[in-house]
Amino acid sequence: MTSTKASSRRKAKGYGPERRAEILNHAMRLISEHGVQMVSTRQIANAVGISQPSLYAYFPNRQALIEAVCVQAFERLILVMTEVAQTSTGLNRLKSLGRAYLMFGFEQPDAYRVGFMIETAEPLDINQIAPPLLAGLRAYGLHRQALADHLGPSRTPDEIDRLAQSLWASLHGLVALMIARGRFPWAERDALIETHLERLLTGL
Amino acid sequence: MTSTKASSRRKAKGYGPERRAEILNHAMRLISEHGVQMVSTRQIANAVGISQPSLYAYFPNRQALIEAVCVQAFERLILVMTEVAQTSTGLNRLKSLGRAYLMFGFEQPDAYRVGFMIETAEPLDINQIAPPLLAGLRAYGLHRQALADHLGPSRTPDEIDRLAQSLWASLHGLVALMIARGRFPWAERDALIETHLERLLTGL
DNA sequence: AATTGTAACCTATCAGTGATAGCTCATCGG
DNA sequence: CCGATGAGCTATCACTGATAGGTTACAATT
Question: What's the pTM value of the predicted model, to 2 decimals?
Answer without folding.
Answer: 0.82
